[in-house]
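Batch manifest, entry 17 of 40.
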Amino acid sequence: TNLVRLLGAVKSAKQERGIDTRPAMVLLPCSPNHGVFGNDGLYAESKLGCESLLNKWESEGWQDYLSLAAAVIGWTRSRLMFQNNIVAPGVEEKGCRTFHTTEMAFNLVALLHPYMTTLAAEAPIWADLTGNWHKIDNLKQATIDLRSAI
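Output type: structure tokens
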């Protein structure tokens, strides 16, 4: 809800000032993990909430004020994921690419390139940066199996 409030405030401020050109570029952090691992609190719900903002772009008239890019961020070998990094090589063997943090940062920054912001002014961008996450049918079980084999 705070993100919706923030986007609404940016839109309102631009609208009040008559700034209806050069929409502000918004990079939304989305995820292919919609609760598949479990025990992650409201992570999936928060990421699904970001996805719903793509529909609001048109339904709530944000086009002249905001441009959106949804980055569906795949497995990134970060300190946050340290407990899963040990099975990352096995995940890659199953067909899902994992990313170093600098690789994913590069991908995210690329979405802010002027060419991409021009595209996003016409319609929201959906950037699949998952590394083929969908190729593993039951990722939770796959990681349990990989961890057991270590």
